[in-house]
Amino acid sequence: MTANVIEVNRLEHSYGSVKAVDDISFTVKKGEIFSFLGPNGAGKSTVINILTTLRKIQKGEARVNGYDVAKESKSVRKSIGIVFQMLCLDHEMTVCENLEYHGKIYSMPKKERKERIEELLKLTELENKRDTLAKDLSGGMKRRLELARGLMTKPAVLFLDEPTIGFDIQTRMRMWEYLREIKREGTTIFLTTHYMEEADQLSDRISIIDNGKIIVTGTADELKNKLGKDLIYLETSDNKTVAEILRAIESVKTVTEDTKSLRVLLGVDVTHVLPLIMEKIRQAGIEITTVNIKKPSMDDVFVHYTGHGLREGEPQERDEGIKTGGVSE
Ligand SMILES: Nc1ncnc2c1ncn2[C@@H]1O[C@H](COP(=O)(O)OP(=O)(O)O)[C@@H](O)[C@H]1O
Ligand SMILES: [Mg+2]
């Protein structure tokens, strides 16, 4: 078997005339946390549903843990754990019973079930909730129970579809901690998210996905470094002219004009080129009101590659908005 736990080759999927997944190929290595980062409607859930055999594959090939999702779906299912929003817990069962039941379905021996439940209650910090009915747990605890259930069978790959959607930042960061711990146990993790920070902080590698296509893949650092060394935000008395001046400077990679400010991506360290930039603007008789310097963030990467922002946290209509020409690179 190869070291790739997930292999996807030229995957396509349509709902009627809507092409939700458009020629997607990628691999996930053993032990990695791999994220699909993209807006609502990008095709993330469709891909994850195909990989977990919940949706039938239409076109292309996909292997999970070495098994073909089309021909060996049973073996695929035995290899995976799933944490999806739509999978509900049994709310009339206690925390322990939910886990026990799941282990039984998967024919885990009693002793193994018992041991695993204790490990997972510890990991997800639900030890003192073991006899609480699932319906009486908070939202964050419910998701932790779902996580524990997904891990019950010690899967080779854990799939999570938007695992922290709607969580506050503390709850989200705790979830990241659990996932890092699970990674340390050797589990490969595939997750989807529309939170920039989640992809950035948690993933070994990220694929940015938009309109059913993978636009770019890499580690968070690779993606940011590819963009440029430093970013300057400038506000001046004449942004338009300044943009022209800056575009003529060799080490300036791109200049984007926002309503109020200019976003200047540099190919070199800011200290090398800032004096020149200031001097040229001064020579043109233009006043600089604000200078802000920062390193490219995941948001910058996303905007750069997709041509639009993610509008985090906003409720989004599936088929409206966020239509772009897509920047290809
Ligand atoms: N069951 C379905 N029937 C019809 N269209 C769907 C269905 N599920 C998803 N779609 C459409 O497919 C596209 C991708 O959706 P989805 O895979 O859910 O994206 P994401 O998870 O990134 O939000 C969207 O345009 C969505 O409206
Ligand atoms: Mg989705």
Automatic annotation (TrEMBL):
Location in the cell: Cell membrane
Record's keyword terms, sorted: ATP-binding, Cell membrane, Membrane, Nucleotide-binding, Translocase, Transport
Compositionally biased tracts (Basic and acidic residues): 310-322
Residue ranges of the region described as Disordered: 310-329
The ABC transporter domain, residue ranges: 6-236
Family: Belongs to the ABC transporter superfamily. Drug exporter-1 (DrugE1) (TC 3.A.1.105) family.
Major site of localization recorded for this protein: membrane
InterPro entries per record: AAA+_ATPase, ABC_transporter-like_ATP-bd, ABC_transporter-like_CS, DrrA, DrrA1/2-like_C, P-loop_NTPase
A Gene Ontology biological process term: daunorubicin transport
Entry protein name: ABC transporter, ATP-binding protein
PANTHER family xrefs: ANTIBIOTIC RESISTANCE ABC TRANSPORTER ATP-BINDING PROTEIN, LINEARMYCIN RESISTANCE ATP-BINDING PROTEIN LNRL
GO terms, molecular function: ATP binding; ATP hydrolysis activity
Origin superkingdom: Archaea
SMART domains on file: AAA (SM00382)
Keyword hit for Transport: yes
GO CC field: plasma membrane
Membrane-related topology note: Peripheral membrane protein
